[in-house]
Specification:
The complex is a heterodimer of chains A (114) and B (113). Chain A is an all-beta fold and 114 residues long. Chain A is built from no helices and 11 strands. In chain A, 0% of the residues lie in helices and 56% in strands. In chain B, 38% of the residues are buried. Classes of the chains: A mainly beta (114), B mainly beta (113).
């Protein structure tokens, strides 16, 4: 069974802390994505990666960075967490040249920044 | 620009049929997808249409008209468990084979007894 896992289901951090969100996929997918989801705003893309060490900014990259040192792992980093980064964070992956635009999502991390 | 429009909310009763529409604007077109997301859960892939017409998978069907830049998701014999958010999505035509998608804002479907 294909799987995308995220390091934490719930996370509480303080303003100014450095936060790491980890995502691992076991499907050998080339593409990986980080989204945040807020009520009424749908899925907003933060960063994505189409290969190891390759990354592209999404629609809302400010305040975030990413790392992809290995194909199966894609990390989202909040350099200095702020309260407006309280949100649900979803990781997804997809194969290169996928035939049906399917992305596979992890269960999400609900981050609260106090 | 590239964008998708879908209604924000739809309400229907158990056993009924409901249609969720999606209109899109893209520079190139590589198919329309639908995702379902239950409250607190992750989005899951439902369907994909690359060509015009209706694709049926059990109680769910998805339709595409490329000439109208329009598609819909049809849910039949509604059940309480169909209460969820439904997103339409197209591939970003400027991102090559990266698989990057552009999602609609989502339609919240509430099924009532």
């Amino acid at each position: 069974d294909v799987k995308v896992t995220q390091s934490s289901r719930y996370l509480v951090k303080r303003t100014g802390e450095k936060v790491f969100l980890e995502c691992v996929q076991d499907m050998d997918h080339e593409n990986m994505f980080w989204y945040r989801q807020d009520p009424g705003l749908g899925l907003r893309l933060i960063y994505f990666s189409y290969d190891v060490k390759m990354k592209e900014k999404g629609d809302i990259p400010e305040g975030y960075s990413v790392s992809r040192e290995k194909k199966e792992r894609f990390s989202l980093i909040l350099e200095s967490a702020s309260t407006n980064q309280t949100s649900m964070y979803l990781c997804a992956s997809s194969p290169d040249r996928g035939r049906n635009n399917e992305q596979f999502f992890g269960p999400g991390t609900r981050l609260t920044v106090l | 620009g590239q964008s998708l429009e879908q209604p924000s909310e739809v309400t229907a009763v158990e056993g009924a049929i409901v249609q969720i529409n999606c209109t899109y604007q893209t520079s190139g077109f590589y198919g329309l997808s639908w995702y379902q997301q239950h409250d607190g859960g992750a989005p899951t892939f439902l369907s994909y249409n690359a060509l015009d017409g209706l694709e049926e998978t059990g109680r769910f069907s998805s339709f595409l008209s490329r000439s109208d830049s329009y598609g819909y998701l049809l849910l039949q014999e509604l059940q309480m468990k169909d209460s969820a958010s439904y997103f339409c999505a197209v591939r970003d035509s400027f991102s090559g084979n990266t698989g990057k998608l552009i999602f609609g804002q989502g339609t919240t479907l509430q099924v009532k007894p």
